[in-house]
Design brief:
Length: 383
């Protein structure tokens, strides 16, 4: 019987480190630099200055100054969006967009198949050129997101360009549940499990996908964590526990020296496996692949990862904003820091061009045309 789901490691940190008496006295004797600067601007700047914007900019700059690419500030206005992403649930239309090179619109990279955009007829590859009659040329992704967002149950007009023709769709805004994991039968008894992230519901959906494929006769599995940004450690560990035999799964060390080793029980899935990853597979996705490789449970295929060595917690601040801060290091079951070795290199390296890479991200490339999936199938066949 599987172990109970572990508590989330990424918990809100409630306590601040205590300050030395000398530091407190110094702060009481003279104003904090940012407070002094803000007061100067508010009292003497000839124009108008927004205190909230100044505070957000200062906080973002302070976090950026530590030089850690994985730590970042979250404004109060963006906090709910951040939590929605971690929960794989949000109110919207269900599309992922990217600004076009000529800044004339936004390419739709992915459409959630159970979302309202898909139901309305919007397709991956369409280019958004207008929202509610307003051109989006020259806008940022955040600005377009603000136009698209609204109260659940209301509608928004989305104008897309498709094959040189403009088409307008009226789309209802509603709660969208991101599909975290899905399964697909390939050939020769091989099942494909695609894992979008390791955030909320990853374990439940991944195991459901695996068991559905096994019921359909799958005798071998390919796990696809390409473009997977990672997520909760607890979700990662529970998926690995299902797949791997008894032993360490994940090692972490916090800022205070506390060391934790997550262990697997003896129950495991004993069938041939492969795992796909690329340069956009981060954090839990890298460690998922690394653990399978170190246990000799799967052959790894694709492109080298970047190598992430820190884990973060999100701390909500008193004004509703938050900071996602690196508070510890983690390593593979064998104690390898992927950051120190420069990332995870697949056993079978298969490079793809930008067009193929974009199609993989959008989910529009069929398995029979995907060179990395083909390489994984060949490896499982022993070719």
């Amino acid at each position: 019987m599987k172990k109970l789901l572990r508590f989330l490691s990424y918990v809100l940190v409630a306590a601040l480190a205590s300050a030395a008496t000398l530091g407190i006295s110094a702060m009481q004797e003279k104003p904090y630099k940012l407070e002094e600067l803000q007061r100067l601007i508010q009292e003497k700047y000839i124009g108008e200055a927004d205190a909230t914007l100044m505070g957000d900019a200062a906080a973002a700059a302070m976090v950026a100054s530590i030089g850690d690419r994985w730590s970042y500030y979250i404004s109060a206005a963006d906090y709910q969006d951040h939590m929605d992403q971690m929960n794989n649930s949000y109110v919207g239309i269900g599309v992922t967009i990217q600004v076009t090179e000529d800044d004339s619109g936004f390419l739709i990279l992915r459409v959630e198949q159970t979302g309202p955009a898909a139901e309305s007829g919007i397709l991956a590859g369409d280019k958004i050129v207008g929202v509610s009659g307003q051109s989006v040329a020259g806008m940022t992704t955040t600005e377009v997101g603000t136009l698209v967002k609204g109260e659940e149950g209301t509608t928004v007009d989305i104008t897309v360009e498709r094959e040189a023709e403009e088409i307008t769709f009226t789309v209802e805004r509603r709660k969208v549940l991101t599909v975290v994991a899905k399964g697909q039968m390939l050939e020769d008894g091989i099942g494909l499990v695609t894992i979008a992230n390791f955030d909320a519901r990853c374990f439940d959906e991944t195991i459901a996908a695996i068991e559905a494929l096994l019921e359909q006769g799958a005798e071998k599995l390919i796990f696809d964590v390409r473009n997977n940004p990672g997520g909760y450690k607890s979700e990662l560990v529970d998926v690995l526990d299902y797949l791997l035999p008894e032993g360490p799964l994940f090692r972490s060390e916090r800022y205070n020296g506390e060391v934790e080793v997550d262990e697997s029980d003896a129950d495991c899935l004993e069938i041939p496996m492969a795992v796909l990853f690329n340069a956009s597979s981060y954090s839990a996705a890298e460690f998922f692949a690394a653990a399978l490789e170190e246990y000799d449970a799967a052959v790894t295929v694709g492109e080298a990862t970047t190598g992430k060595g820190y884990f973060q917690v999100t701390t909500k601040l008193s004004d509703g904003s938050a900071v996602n801060l690196s508070i510890g290091r983690y390593t593979t079951p064998n104690g390898v820091s992927l950051a120190e070795v420069g990332g995870l290199v697949p056993q079978i390296q298969v490079e793809v061009d930008d067009e193929t890479r974009n199609a993989i991200y959008a989910g529009t490339l069929e398995p029979e045309n995907d060179p990395q999936i083909r390489a994984a199938i060949a490896a499982l066949r022993g070719e």
